[in-house]
Amino acid sequence: MNSPAAATIKMSEQLAARLSGQTLARRLRADTGGDVLFDAGARARYATDASIYQIEPVGVFVPRSEADVINAMAIAAELRVPILPRGAGTSQCGQTIGAALVIDNSKYLNQVIDFDAAAMTVTVQPGMVLDHLNAWLKPHGLWFPVDVSTAAQCTIGGMAGNNSCGSRSLAYGNMVHNVLSIDAVLADGTQARFQDEAGMAGAAPRIAQLLGGLRAIATRERDEIARMVPKVMRRVGGYNIDIYHPQSERPYTLDNSVNLAHLLVGSEGTLATTRRITLKLLPLPRHKVLGVVNFNSFQKAMELTRHIVGLAPVAVELVDRTMIELAMDNPAFRPVISKALIGAPEAVLLVEFAGEDFGVQRAALARLVDLMGDLGLPGSVVEMPDAGAQKALWDVRKAGLNIMMSMRGDGKPVSFIEDCAVPLEHLADYTSRLTEVFTRHGTRGTWYAHASVGTLHVRPILDMRRGGPHKMRAIAEEAGALVRQYKGAFSGEHGDGLVRSEWVAWQFGPRLLRAFEEIKDLFDPAGLMNPGKIVRATRMDDTSLLRYPPGYRPLALSTALDWSAWNVQVDPVSELTSAPGSGGDPAGGFAKAVDMCNNNGHCRKFDAGTMCPSYRVTRDEQHLTRGRANTLRLALSGQLGEDGFTSQEMRDTLDLCVGCKGCKRDCPTGIDMAKMKIEFLYHWQQKHGLSVKDKLIAYLPQLAPWAARLPWLANLRNTVPGAALLSERLLGLSARRSLPSWRSDTFLGGAAAAGVPAEQADVVLFADTFNNYFESENAAAAMQVLQAGGYKVFVARPAAGDAEPKRPLCCGRTYLASGIVEQARAEARRLIDALRPLVARGVPVVGLEPSCLLTLRDEFLAMGLGADADALGAQALLFEEFLAREHAAGKLHLPLKALPQTTALLHGHCHQKAFDAVSPVQTVLGLVPGLKVQLIESSCCGMAGSFGYDASHYEVSMQMAELSLLPAVRAAAPDTLLIADGTSCRHQIADGAGREALHAARVLARSLSM
Ligand SMILES: Cc1cc2nc3c(=O)[nH]c(=O)nc-3n(C[C@H](O)[C@H](O)[C@H](O)COP(=O)(O)OP(=O)(O)OC[C@H]3O[C@@H](n4cnc5c(N)ncnc54)[C@H](O)[C@@H]3O)c2cc1C
Ligand code: SF4
Ligand code: SF4
Questions:
Q1: For residue 323, what is the enclosing H or E element?
Q2: Among 229, 556, 653, 673, which residue has the fewest nearby CB atoms (within 10 Å)?
Q3: Ligand 3 — pocket residues by CB below 6 A?
Q4: Nearest-CA neighbor of 993 among 975, 978, 982, 983?
Q5: Ligand 3 atom closest to Cα of residue 664
Q6: Distance between CA atoms of 70 and 63, rounded to whole angstroms?
């Protein structure tokens, strides 16, 4: 328990690990079919979960089959290497990390094994993600109701490991209430189905002996169990020894019989590895209604919760003022949360009723409205009977923690007393007294979540690099005293792990702790399963285990981009942020921007959002936003060696990032990996130089005028047999790709680009390299549409005095994509200089290619270009954004006529999605009479600028496209218009489906000419 002991345990574990690591890797490669990841980068990426800790594993094993798991465990046990099973790694307490062989079940072991619709049971492998299971069950009218916030990421194995529970646990309970059996493998290789005790009669001698031992302990400790196990439903700490003498408010089994699977539930991988789990299912509730109760005092919300619970809702969830404000600051959440508010409440309670009959649910909602009136709060309920609105609001609530973690600076909300559970009658007192504790320690906490069961999440803001560990312990001790006084549970949801295992003795007493140690030894006498968790624990404030220990400091780095907005500190009480650049980051804010990733794993997602296409196709931690941010953090802090940041490992980790900016929008803490990749590439090319292919692509805007003059020569790669293969061999450009064809009829060289002089213009058209040289008809179409709308268009051209007056203006995107930031900055300056007088007059600057135009609103602001760049960025609009804005203002009058086609499929470019710029395209296309526009629910097209042209990316690029875009395109009727504003998206559609997609400007132009 004390620090020297902890250090000794850690050192001996690490030594054992190092000695055994190589042999282990060799044996795993020889004797299993799984992926064996023992390199420094892979180990580093599995050294963290969503907790504050970091421990490097011996190695990582990704089994392809259940047999692989059994073999790997046998090899590890033989070499006496600890074993740590893992799902999505979203645990908050450090239970998913250790100096062990980490076995990641999430990639391959994620199948439904057995399903019995009549009995309402399903058996799954441990790596199955909860949302995927529920999607699978939906057609059968069933669901698994343990609805944890991380449902899109967390695995059933991890949920069982943690005894997880969700917002609706009031109605459906924890995992322990919903697991029927677990097929487990013990560290010594014994396999058994842990289930109802009667069903285990006649088990093999090893298991029979285990069961006998367990029962003997429980019988001996009967009185102590009754005395020390908290009698609340939300208790997940320690082992569930109360299966024998039930203590929970909600029985684990209907008849109080003993089910041995329930002892494994919540055991955090310390007793056995789960191979399969059988779950109890429920019919999907047909109807749900939601009432959002607005309170003008937090205290009042706490006091009245128990009255609301009396109406038998399935959930009562708290969202406090801070959380409301943070959600209002997030563009994706603002429209949703604002619909739930009446004025500016201090707190809201989300109250859900669910069941078969809509009328009954509506009546319950009416009772809630009446109740609030009776309790002195008439008119405080926003009623939401609509399923869509409910889901959107629940998504905001589920993102609660992540929203909170978007705080910049080194002080962060820290999870350590995050889920204490107290009886409802004490909730108001408990929260106000704990708030006083925070104040005494110079911090504050934001309260949210499961009011219905007395488990409110709260994370005091602490700076673990400066005094945080000391304050953490002091606050935990005072919080513990309150929990004890109110007869609550210290761990009501997230488990023990590294942060709370030392509190197991405090909660259950020394006698039960010894009993827990005996249980551990019965299952795992060699102590190999996830050691140091639940029993024989380290101290919560052992600084040698912290991800950011006191004195943590990244290496100095002179950055190419401006990261000063992240280089701040936040006052934990007032939450006031210091001036940009004042945060003391030797990497100029870049390291702090990277540190914003708190490892919550939200990027492991598969739904219709944009983040993260490379993870979706590879399912590798390395090719996930979290894995990339982790690798960057370790490199920037010198933990991947002196040159870690410019190492091949770092390059490989960022290689499949397509720069889609999906994370910039979808990551709750705003990790912008596309921008981070530019910073990395800048340093990479400074050290290693650029390949010929990268140079060719980067300098395309400089080469373009020459290529357009001699297009037949530039196009030889596409026309001469064998040239494509040669270009693959020499340059690395995939022979399976056609390259865009050069043409001499550029937009800027033709009559269509005439326009008006700058002084007369009321709009500027910026023709990017791609729409000028390769698809000039797009720019011509945009010109035609703008002029038809009565606009006086100036076509952007270099300023007088430009050093290259004949070379068209450029946004610098191709240079940024290779990390040539100086050249990109020079291009940006040319553009700014050229447009300065127009921008000063407030003339909008309109562009066609999303990745080019949006560079003006994004990267331009991070290149140290000053106020001119800000002014240009504020006026830069995509073509459709401009038209939609004009339409909304009643100023757009286009004589559009019906087209021969009546349906259109629209694919949004990733950057359009990241900047919320897809809906203007829908609005504008909606002006074409009779045209029905359907949006393809797609992620990145996979081409992503030059990404898909690279021979080494071809397969991944096509897999990304095949996720949803290409199947949707192929399924479209031949007369359906395909619309995509991105040059590379159109190219991918042509390559992958043999169909032509059009820029929206051309569709509008066609509609004008009908
Ligand atoms: C933002 C956020 C919100 C959260 N909200 C909730 C919430 O609403 N409710 C809640 O309960 N939790 C919540 N959590 C915690 C966490 O997401 C859940 O506990 C989740 O169920 C863990 O699943 P996982 O797949 O990530 O498991 P992991 O973190 O990978 O593993 C969890 C534990 O299970 C063990 N384990 C994993 N697989 C096996 C196996 N095959 N055999 C044996 N042991 C195994 C691991 O060793 C570990 O001890 C939240 C976390 C975050 C970051
Ligand atoms: S990158 Fe963002 S979404 Fe992914 S783990 Fe980090 S903070 Fe969470
Ligand atoms: S930019 Fe796109 S590919 Fe890169 S990490 Fe973010 S979501 Fe993933």
A1: helix 321-329
A2: 556
A3: 611-614, 625, 628, 657-663, 673-674
A4: 978
A5: 6
A6: 9
Nearest CA to ligand 2 atom 1: 626
CB 47 within 8 A of CB 56: yes
Quick: pLDDT tens for 834-882. 999 999 999 999 999 999 999 999 999 999 999 999 999 999 999 999 9
Cα(746)–Cα(44) distance, integer angstroms: 50
Residue pair 711/742 in contact by the 8 Å Cβ criterion: yes
Q: How far apart are CA 386 and CA 804, in angstroms?
A: 59
C-beta atoms surrounding 166 within 10 Å:
25
Residue 315 host element (H or E): strand 315-320
150 lines ligand 2 (CB under 6 A): no
Token digits for 84? Answer: 């740590």
Per-residue pLDDT tens for 770-787? Answer: 999 999 999 999 999 999
Read off the pLDDT of residues 518-573 as tens digits, 9 standing for 90 and up. Answer: 999 999 999 999 999 999 999 999 999 999 999 899 999 999 999 999 999 988 88
**Nearest CA residue ID for atom 8, ligand 3:** 612
Q: Which amino acid residue places its CA nearest to atom 6 of ligand 2?
A: 597
* Rounded Cα distance, 1001 and 656, in Å: 31
Residues 6+ apart with CB under 8 A from 431: 298, 299, 302, 447, 456, 458
Tell me how far the alpha carbon of residue 751 lies from the centroid of ligand 2, in angstroms: 49
- Ligand 3, atom 5, lies closest to the CA of 625
Bridge partners, 545 (sequence order): none
**Ligand 1 test: best mutation among 148, 153, 448, 459, most atoms within 8 Å of CB?**
148
Q: First vs last Cα of the chain: how many Å apart?
A: 80
Ligand 2 centroid, distance to 608 Cα (angstroms): 17
- Percent helix, strand and coil across the chain, each to the nearest 5: 45, 15, 40
Which pair of tokens denotes residue 568? 């701040």
Q: How many CA atoms lie within 13 A of 802 on its CB side?
A: 22
The best mutation among 154, 267, 403 to test binding of ligand 1, ranked by most ligand atoms within 8 Å of the C-beta, falls on 154
Instruction: Quick: pLDDT tens for 132-145.
Output: 999 999 999 999 99
Q: Find the farthest-apart pair of alpha carbons in the chain and give their distance in angstroms, rounded.
A: 94
Q: Is the dihedral of CA 506, 509, 510, 512 positive or negative?
A: negative
What does the angle CA 878 – CA 876 – CA 934 come to, to the nearest 5 degrees?
Answer: 20
Residue to mutate (ligand 3; options 661, 678, 938; most atoms within 8 A of CB) = 661
Token pair of 316, please?
């009562």
**What DSSP letter does each residue of 809-849 carry, written as one string?**
P---HHHHTTT-HHHHHHHHHHHHHHHHHHHHTT--EEES-
| Residues in the chain, overall count | 1010
What atom of ligand 2 comes closest to residue 624's alpha carbon?
A: 4
Alpha-carbon distance of 24 to 34, in angstroms, equals 13
CA distances from 299 to 414, 432, 798 (A): 23, 7, 62
Q: In whole angstroms, what separates CA 23 from the centre of its chain?
A: 35
